[in-house]
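Input record (one chain):
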Amino acid sequence: MRGRRGLPQAAAMRLAVLIDAENAQARLVASVLQAVDRHGRATLRRAYGDWSAPALSGWRDAVDTHAIEPIQQFRSRSGKNSSDCAMIVDAMDLLHGGRFDGFCLMSNDNDFASLARRIRREGRHVFGFGTRGAGEQLQQACDRYLMVDDAPRRIAAADDDAAMCRAEQVAVLAAAVEGCREASGWSPLTAVGQRAKQEGVTPAELGFSSLRKLLEAFAFFEISSAESGAGTRPNEFVRRIPASR
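The corresponding structure, as predicted from the sequence alone:
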């Protein structure tokens, strides 16, 4: 089911997870996949690297545990990173195949910045995952880039404001945002909450202390505030983030 912007509802978003194993840490993959699950369904999981190299020995258990398909690429004698090339070529094939609504790139490498921009030009979302050492170009090229090394509690949904939501309830929220959209493209947060409540969905039921915090848990919603006068609370609005800007 698609909204008026041509984007899939949150619950139905099909995501391809592509992991640059040579520039990512195996110990963080569980947290990354939990974060991915909040934004849709990872229907494909692949990790790229030279699996004969001792440096990737830590990934071997991770790919088995998390049902990740390892893609073998031996290092090129020319010095070029064959794994990076394979991941980029695969991503382009998947993009043109039309099966996915978004791509999740787990890497710190700026070499994937051009890939992220290319995917976004085709109207698909790009979520990046890495650590504090991630390249600035890659971070800027993604719709959202999440530092997984310094936010494990938030990613793993371990606190009160990060409970996982059931797919059908997320779909209700997405429909409420679309249904309350004004000419400006933004939906009043109060109206969204009222419509969702009519469908039996409330932030408290999903483990969040407010509707704003619930919507902010997803990478494809954006919140804005506007002053409403002295002595009164600001008006708050929400919208789906466009896939390309």
